[in-house]
Amino acid sequence: MSTAGSRVAIAAAIGAAALFVAGCGGGGDNGGGSGKNEDVTIGFSQRRIAGSDWYKTLIQGAKDEARRQGVKIDVTDAGGDTVRQISDVRTLLSRGADGIILNANDPAGVSPAMATAKSANVPVVAVNSNLDQNLANQAYCYVAEDQVATGALAGKAIAADVAKKYGPGDKIKMVTIGGYPGDIISDLRDKGFHQGWDAYWKQNPGKKPSVVQLPRKYGEWLPDKALPQIRDVATANPDLKVVYSESDVMHAGVKQALTQSGIYNKTLVASYDGGMNFIKEMVDNPGGPAQADASNQPYDQGVEAVRQVVAAVKGTPKSQSCAGGTKYIKTIAVTPQTAKKYYDPNKSYVQSFGT
Asked: The domain that contains 278 carries what CATH number?
């Protein structure tokens, strides 16, 4: 690029403020590692890392695929600060990034970062968090799981467990806990869960108990925030029978709340993420509360994000690599019947790539 000289100068001034990983290794998936991509640098602007094994796994997938592809990857951590993330993207561009992977802290607030990348003629791939609809068409690709379809896997699986324990003459209470009110991720995962739940009963007419859906709660995707929310629900509703947690990260708080209320072993719990802690609980206690986990495979998302941004840098038409602008990874539902197959103590989340 014509700005290469200025980028070098700026980079020297900025120094090594970001986390930097150089990948130039041998062979691997997708035909990488031959050295033909060694002049390609990918900038990965991550919204937050600390406190989240999910985000760490996402980044690890990207790093591993960059190594397999023979490209360099430069990772920055915005720490949950949108202003900082905008600055991070500009820093990555100044360092010579040929393509940007962006996990947006604020889908609309990153607009200045997108504008800077567009001005530099550098392609952007969004991962995990989609961009605002006014920005989405500026990205080469959006990589994620189909959250509605994935949530539906959990809903259908837990409905099957409900059908084994309860019948048309029974009345049960159910509650969902998501991240934040108005958060599109929470809404999509909830929508999907209920689609799967309803689909099961349509396929099994005459078996559904009477269900009372309690108001949705929000745990900010954190166990300590989920705990008081579910504890309040359980205290007020000791006959609570089904809990759907929209993230495994909150499960420790959900479990503690239900245990403190004396009803954990009386509930059926469905979750979302495919975290090994939840899966281990199913392995250790197949007949226990943990009965379904929809896996969104962060490692696989990191791998696919790198593949897409490399394709963009190489000039591959979007119609060939990311038709429609969205690339959904394949997801699964893990149940006690399949938990041993997917459990791996050396991993934090279920993954398909690199296994």
From this structure: 3.40.50.2300
